[in-house]
Amino acid sequence: xxxxxxxxxxxxxxxxxxxxxxxxxxxxxxxxxxxxxxxxxxxxxxxxxxxxxxxxxxxxxxxxxxxxxxxxxxxxxxxxxxxxxxxxxxxxxxxxxxxxxxxxxxxxxxxxxxxxxxxxxxxxxxxxxxxxxxxxxxxxxxxxxxxxxxxxxxxxxxxxxxxxxxxxxxxxxxxxxxxxxxxxxxxxxxxxxxxxxxxxxxxxxxxxxxxxxxxxxxxxxxxxxxxxxxxxxxxxxxxxxxxxxxxxxxxxxxxxxxxxxxxxxxxxxxxxxxxxxxxxxxxxxxxxxxxxxxxxxxxxxxxxxxxxxxxxxxxxxxxxxxxxxxxxxxxxxxxxxxxxxxxxxxxxxxxxxxxxxxxxxxxxxxxxxxxxxxxxxxxxxxxxxxxxxxxxxxxxxxxxxxxxxxxxxxxxxxxxxxxxxxxxxxxxxxxxxxxxxxxxxxxxxxxxxxxxxxxxxxxxxxxxxxxxxxxxxxxxxxxxxxxxxxxxxxxxxxxxxxxxxxxxxxxxxxxxxxxxxxxxxxxxxxxxxxxxxxxxxxxxxxxxxxxxxxxxxxxx
Length: 556
Fold this sequence. Notes:
Layout: H1 4-8, H2 14-21, H3 31-34, H4 39-51, H5 55-67, H6 77-96, H7 101-118, H8 121-142, H9 149-165, H10 168-185, H11 192-200, H12 208-225, H13 228-241, H14 247-267, H15 271-287, H16 291-307, H17 311-419, H18 435-448, H19 459-465, H20 471-482, H21 486-503, H22 505-508, H23 513-519, H24 525-536, H25 540-551
C-alpha cells in the first residue's frame, strides 16, 4: 500500500493476482529455513515478495517476525519496532490480498499498541493509515461508496501523528489520503485545516513526490473556492509531476488525477470531456480485467446520470457496477478454497508459536521461581551456618572457661591434700569453734574420696567419713556455708570428674558419654545431661566434640 488510491480502489486488485502469485504446492516448505533468519532480513524479503507479486511468501516472512512478539524482550526497541512493522504489513496483506478484515484489524490493533508503547509516531502513523483503510474499503463496498466518520478520524490521526514524528514521507502519504477523502465526501470542512497545515509544512525539495501532492492540494483548494479553471490547470501540472517508485505506482497516481479531473469537468459543465475521460478509464480497466476499478468507474457514471435525471443510463451503469461488485466478491469466494489450506497452516503455525511462547514464558517463570527458592534456601542455609558458627564459638568459649575452672579446682584440690594429709580425725562433738575444721574435712573427702562417685554415696556416709555425729548438722553446714544441698554438691563434683574423664582421651576415649556418666555415679542419663549442661553450659556430646577439635587429629 504505497499510495492513496491503492488503499481504496486499485489496492484490492491484488486479490485478482492471487491465482498467479501463489507459490504453489508446498508453500510452507521454506518455513523451517526462514524461521531462524534475522527479523531485518525477513522484513526485506517480505517486501520483495510483496512487490514481486508473491503474497503467500510475503505473508510467511511477516508472520515469522510477528510471532516474535511473544519472545522479544520489551526493552529491545529495535526488535519490537520490526515486530510492529511486520504486523502492519500483515494488516495490509489480510486487507487487500486475503480479504480477512477481522484478522487485519487484529494485527493492526496489536501494532498500534506496540507503537504507543515505543512512543514511535512513525509506526503509529502507518498503523492509523492502515486501520483507516480497512474502514475506507468496507465503507466503499458496504455503504454504497460513502465513507464513514471513523475513516476520516483515523486518517486525520495518521496525518497528525506523522507531523508529530516529523516524518516527511508519512506526512505526504497521509495528506494525499486526506485529499482523496475530501473529494469522496465532498466535505472540505473536515480536512481543510489539515490540508493547510500540509501546505505550510517544510519538506526537502529532494522529495519529488512532495511537489505532486502539493499541486493536488492546491488544485483541490482552488476547486473548493470555485476557481475551476485554475484547478484544471493545476491538475494538468500534477500529471507532469507524477512520481512513483515503479510503473505501477505512477499509473495509480495518473488514474487518481484523471478521476479528479472527471469530477472537475462535470462541475465546469464540460460533460463530453468528462465522459471521454471516464470511458477511457473503463476501457483500461477492461483491458486489465480489473473489476475493482470497473466497479468504481461504473459507480461514478451511474451517479453522473442520476444527477442529470437520466434514470435509464443511471440504472444501466448502476447495474454494471453491481455486476462488477458481484464478480469481485464471487472471485474472492472462489479463491477462498485455494488459499484456505495455506491460511490454515499459517494459523496452525501461529497457534504453535503462541503455545511455544507460553511454554517459554512459563519455563522462564518456573526458572525464576526455582532461582528465588534456591536463593531463599541458600539464605536460610547461610543463616543456619552462621548460627552454627556462632554456636560453635560460644561452645568453644564455654569449653575453655570450663577447662580454666577445672584447672583452678585441681589446683585447689592439691592444696587441700597438701594441707591435710590424714583423712581421719578423732571423733568428737562439733563445737562452734571447730566449724573451720569441719569444713576442711568435708572438702578433703569431696576432693579425694572415690566413694563420692558411687551411686549409693549418701549424706550419712559423708558424716561418717568426716567423723561428724549428726548428718543433719552436716546438711546445715553445707546449706549455710556452701549454699548447696548435699545432692547439689555431690552432683557438681561428679560433673567435674565427668569433664576430666571426657577430656582424658588416653584412658576414656573408648567410653561412651553414658558410660562415663555411670562411672561418676549418675544412675539416670537424662539427669546427668541436665546437670552437665547446667554446670558447663554445654551438652556432654558438644563438650566431647570441643575436646576432640581442640586436641586435633591423633599423631601418626
